[in-house]
Specification:
Number of domains: 2
Strand content: 35-45%
CATH topology of the largest domain: Porin
Distance between the termini: 78 Å
Radius of gyration: 26 Å
Structural class: mainly beta
CATH architecture of the largest domain: Beta Barrel
Shape: globular
Strand order of the largest sheet: 1-2-3-4-5-6-7-8-9-10-11-12
CATH class of the largest domain: Mainly Beta
Number of strands: 12
Length: 315
């Protein structure tokens, strides 16, 4: 046989053997993966909340997470901000600290205290589904009970009613379902929906449509994260408030009416800490106040600078 053909035959044989060996190796890897079952993916979120919305992340059993959150005043002059307040930096719209405890797999409970209404919150989150290589989403339930220990003279300051229940009136509740998905290495998205309830509501009327303020306020929301690298991300979230009373509410002084909260921030993880700096038109830090009481918009400077720091501890 011609040496030229022998050379080609030898090359083809080597290629065939390499192909068969690679195919066998790939098949073995597939079989090995099938034996192990669905595999976990990288965590969808760095923390249990984005800016104003919760995520599906829960604290691990035996771990405590501590949060400190601060939101400054309005940046725009039309809504109170000015050079002499350093565009809201001298003011504090709300301050909150919180403790969260992992008490079982996929279950955490928490307690927090906010400056606005002196609100004390007891909350719980349970992660029903975790995203894996075979499960496309994560799913969590979140519930919250808020208690306002404000003095009656302040709590009822806008009321003309003589019927007051005091303790029961000062309770508020929130329940929501959160669904999310991590898309590849750099993008995560969540959708959520729920209802916020206040036992006591002043019977104000929207002069545009005649609707009265509601005890129950349904809402929907969304949030996302765009990762620049393993430690830093752009985060954002949004609430859509479903309230006839808050629909087309006439703007009053400055930019005051009712607005859907929208926020954007920069998040950095440094070891056991997660630090975030953000801007939001919501003045408050607790959902029981954010949903019914967001009264400034972005257009005329109703946004505020804020930050949060969280730290985990093994118990």
């Amino acid at each position: 046989m011609n040496k030229k053909y022998l050379s080609w035959l030898f090359i083809l044989t080597l290629v065939s053997v390499s192909f068969v060996a690679k195919s066998q190796d790939d098949l073995l890897k597939l079989l090995d993966t099938a034996k192990k079952g669905p595999q976990k993916i990288s965590p969808t979120w760095k923390d249990t909340r984005l800016i104003n919305v919760q995520t599906t992340k829960v604290v691990d059993p035996g771990v405590m997470e501590f949060f400190i959150l601060h939101r400054f005043g309005d940046a725009g002059e039309a809504t109170g901000g000015a050079f002499h307040t350093l565009y809201g930096f001298d003011l504090a719209s709300d301050i909150q600290f919180a403790f969260q405890f992992g008490i079982a797999k996929n279950l955490m409970i928490g307690i927090s205290r906010s400056k606005e209404q002196e609100l004390i919150d007891l909350d719980a989150k349970y992660k029903l589904v975790t995203q894996t290589t075979s499960t496309p989403i994560s799913l969590a339930l979140y519930g919250d009970v808020g208690i306002s220990p404000e003095l009656n003279s302040k709590f009822y300051s806008q009321s003309d009613s003589t019927t007051k229940n005091y303790f029961v009136d000062k309770l508020s509740y929130l329940g929501e379902l959160i669904i999310d998905r991590r898309f590849g290495n750099h993008f995560s998205l969540e959708l959520l929906g729920g209802v916020q309830h206040r036992n006591y509501v002043v019977a104000n009327i929207n002069p545009d449509n005649g609707a009265a303020d509601e005890n129950n306020i349904p809402f929907a929301g969304a949030g996302g994260r765009i990762m620049f690298n393993k430690h830093s991300s752009l985060v954002f979230d949004y609430y859509y408030i479903i309230s006839q009373y808050r629909t087309n509410y006439p703007l009053q002084s400055g930019n005051t009416g009712y607005f859907n909260p929208i926020s954007i921030g920069y998040e950095v993880e440094t070891g056991g800490h997660v630090f975030e700096i953000n801007f939001s038109n919501a003045a408050y830090l607790d959902e029981n106040n954010i949903i019914p009481h967001t009264t400034e918009g972005w257009v005329k400077g109703g946004f505020k600078l804020g930050f949060s720091i969280s730290r985990v501890f093994n118990l």
